[in-house]
Each structure stands twice: as structure tokens, then as C-alpha cells.
DNA sequence: CTATGTGAAAGACTTCACAGCA
DNA sequence: TGCTGTGAAGTCTTTCACATAG
């Protein structure tokens, strides 16, 4: 696929890198905090520190949105908050349904961050008839039978799956058939969806395993004692060397690729 | 820190790409499922489909671990399960502490996936005195005062933070001071940690915002019908194009850079 | 003849470093 | 003078495509 770097019409070239999109919420959060403290402007350096990234990256990211800063000064906090919000589509209302009101589903329903950014819990759905009517986070749980009606009635396009792994694909299919085109999946399963539907997954187990991998390495290093040049192993991997100093810092702040979260069922 | 090392004989060149490490848990999950069905071998094509990635990527990933396949045949399921488990450090016991037993913390404590892969909930910690002693998921909650003692006593190196955003950094500092070197953060805050400590974050709000961004685009595409705002939707955008066929598959499985998850406090 | 393993090419993302505007 | 905006360089990932082992 040739990145038809298309003729960028003035500012705002469409085609913001995925990596940048993933960081916009981070910047937005930092900016919101500044805004609440009535800070009028910030430099890329300060904002980057607050968001946990380096300033060059931040400036590059913002450059994809347009030239919203002032040389020699910095960025206007309020203005940036607005621009990023608009870019992320947070200036509109996004009704969301959460399917699977177990421990996790309830936690998500109670999650305050929802409302704060245009997301509105339109409904809580669970397959257990006993749950029907029971209020969670002030919202009455509805039975799965109602799923299609709710999606269509409320015009829901984003669905959150917090069911056991075994039910995830089935729920997903129904959500999609009913019109949902974006899914946040907390069940530890690979969902199959038709083209045009976005899926993001969050899997606690995966995150822990990644941490374990690095943790294991740390232990190994101690035992092997940091030699000047890696002993055994193939060759003095250049990559390895770099990793040494950057990894700790990097992993901690801007976290590497792939992200995931918790789930409800065993892996 | 030095990197090289490890007395790993034969294959196994040190320096597995981070992107590959992030996918190993995915392969492991798929392999475990096959193993339970007593499937003896799998081709890269089949396994890739089960894991939601493409076969070329999978083969490349495995090539970093060594040559564990048989040309013309495929991979031995049991053997691969073992190799990947070892690589990820899952053949050993990893005691984990969860701090902040609110809705989310309780959900995590009940998460079955923990035990299944070498992770053991060594303790549940909460700052609320009223919670002390109360069992959650069969484990009695302990007060924050006990934090240091538990970490050191159990030799915990992985900590999960599920507290409100305001307490996260403080908890993090205590965990690190007590000896924890890997942290999974569910609070919507950027944690600052010393070198050598790994942090992975999981933030529901961020995931939803990313979905909203793409959702907004889809809506725009429909309206613009590949007209005035081409670059994004209309143009054979590399990303867009790929997304069409692979994305559904891709986004679901290998998800882009930076990962996050849910939290307990508003953004 | 099949499916792995892997150089090489293509892309995506990050970092550098500095021109240029306020 | 200070800080943004951005080509260019550097690094990491993915994809291609095919030699090669079984």
C-alpha cells in the first residue's frame, strides 16, 4: 500500500499516524489538568513531561494536527484541548453499551472516566435473568434479549464486551449485526468481525505476561553480572545494548507497542 | 543496565523484538487451546489465524525464538507451548499484589486468568481500614500499612495498581521502594519510576477515545462519500485500505502501539 | 510438493537538529 | 532569544518472496 501521502490541504493533513492517535488522549488528559489549574500556556517540553513522552515526539504529533503553537511561547492550553477533543471526536455524544455485568462490567459501569469525555453509558446488558432490573451504577441492567432494540433505539455505535470468553464472539456478532462498528473487548478471545468494524482488546493476562518476560530478564542480568560485552549468546547485539539504557525509561513512560487489559475469564 | 547475557545455548539469540514479545502471549493462548483439544501440530497458517495475525509475522516471530518447526509439516503444539512459556518466564511462580480493592481491584482479584499462568495473587491491599480482613475472591484484604512487609516477605516483584488516580503515584513509590520492579497501572495517571522499573498502563478511557476517533472517521466517510476530504477515507489510504481487510483482524489481535486500560477514577 | 525460516525491501515510528517565526 | 515546526536520518516492524529442509 503506497502511502499516497496525498496533497495535504493546508493544515490538517488527513492521515494522522495511528501511534499519534493513541497518544492524543494522553495529551488531552495532561492538558485538561493544566486547564483546571488555569494554566494559560505550556511549552512542548512541559506538556511532554506531564504526558510522559519526549518533546520531539509531542511536537511531531501536534504537527499532524496543524500548527497550533506559537514559536517562542508554546501552546495555548484551552485551544489545544478543543482541537484535540474535536480531532478525537469527543465533542459529540457517544452512547455506549456494556455487555456482561460481572465484576468487571460493574467496575466499568462505575468508571467515572466515561462521562467525562462524551461517552455515555446507554445501557448495561447481561444474560443472567436474575440481573435484569437490578441497578448498577444507577443504571438498571437489561436482559440480552433487549440488545438489538437498545442498539438501534439509542443509535449506539460503540460496544464494550465484558463477558466470559465463551460468550464474547456471540455477543460481538449480535452487536455488529445490530449496528455497532467499534468494539472494546475485555474477554480473552480473538474476535472475528467484518471489515469496517474496529476492535480493540484489553487483556490483563497479556500485560502480566509481558511484564514477566522483562522481569525474568532482569533476574538473569543480575546473575550474569553486567559484563562489558555480552558473553555467550550470539554476538554483542547492538540492539540489546541500546535497550539496556532506554528500556527502563521508555517502557515506563511511553510504553511499547500493543496494549491490552483485563478480562473476566481464565486465559 | 547490560543486556546481553544469558547462558542460553544453541538457538535463542538474545534480543527478541518488543513487538514480538507482545504477541507471544497471544500465540500461547491459541496453542493452549489447541493443546486442550489434543491437536498435535499446527501450521503457521492455522496458528496465525487462531491468534489473529498473519502467518509471515508469526513465522518471523518464532524465528527469533529458534527453529522450532518442521518444514513441510508445521509446529509441534506441546513443544511450542513449553518454549514460549519458558521464554515468557511463565514456568516460574510470580507472586503479585493488587493495591486498591474497589470495583476494579475486586474484578482483577476474581480474574481467573491469573492463576493459569504462573501468576499468584499474594495479597490484596487497600487503604480503607473497613476493608481490612474482608475476603475478596477468597483472599483477605490487608491494610496499606502492611504493604512493605508483604512485598518483602513474599518476594513480590510485580504489583498491580487499581487505586484512584490520586493515590497511584504514592502507592507506586512505596511498591518500588519495597522492591517491586514491574507495575501494571490501571489508574489514569502517568507514573514516574526509577530506571529499571517497568510500567505498563491500562486505561479504558484512552481505548474508548481511540475508538471514537476511528468511529468519527467512518461517519465522515459516509457523509463525504470520498469527496472533498479524500485523504482519509476515500483515497486508497494505506492504513484505511489495510484496515478494511486486515484491520478488523489486526486491530483485534495485535493492536497498535501504546496500550492502556480501564481505571477507577475519571480522566 | 509442502510449509518453514529468513534475507531483503517496504513501511511506520522516533529522534535529531536546525531553520524560522514571534 | 526561545520554542515551535519539520525535513532528514535512524530505528523498529511488517511484508515479501523464495531457497530449503522434510
Structure overview:
Chains A, B: Residues 26-65 bind DNA. Two copies of one chain form a homodimer. Among the domains of chain A are: 18-88, Winged helix-like DNA-binding domain superfamily/Winged helix DNA-binding domain (Arc Repressor Mutant, subunit A), CATH 1.10.10; 94-201, NAD(P)-binding Rossmann-like Domain (Rossmann fold), CATH 3.40.50.720. In chain A, helix 7 (165-178) links the parallel strand 8 (158-161) and strand 9. By secondary structure, chain A is α/β, with parallel strands linked by helices. Chain A is built from nine helices and ten strands. The first copy, chain A, has helices spanning 18-36, 44-51, 55-65, 77-88, 103-110, 147-154, 165-178, 204-224, 238-253; strands spanning 41-42, 69-70, 74-76, 94-99, 119-126, 135-136, 139-143, 158-161, 182-185, 198-201. In chain A, the strands form two sheets. In chain A, strands 6-7-5-4-8-9-10 form a seven-stranded mixed β-sheet. Chain A has a three-stranded antiparallel β-sheet with strand order 1-3-2. Chain A starts with 17 loop residues before the first helix and ends in a 14-residue tail after the last helix. Chains A and B meet through helix 1, helix 5, strand 9, strand 10 and helix 8 of A and helix 1, helix 5, helix 6, strand 9 and strand 10 of B. The first copy, chain A, binds a DNA duplex (22 and 22 nucleotides) through residues 1, 3, 17-20, 43-45, 54-57, 59-60, 62-63, 67, 69-75, 239, 242, 257.
- Series of H and E elements of chain A: HEHHEEHEHEEEHEHEEHH
The count of β-strands of chain A is 10
Strand pairing plus helix content of chain A: what structural class? alpha/beta
Would you give the CATH topology of the domain at 94-201 in chain A? Rossmann fold
| Helix fraction bin of chain A | 40-55%
Function (chains A, B): Modulates transcription in response to changes in cellular NADH/NAD(+) redox state.
Protein name (chains A, B): Redox-sensing transcriptional repressor Rex
Biased composition (Low complexity) (chains A, B): 230-256
Pfam family, one (chains A, B): CoA_binding
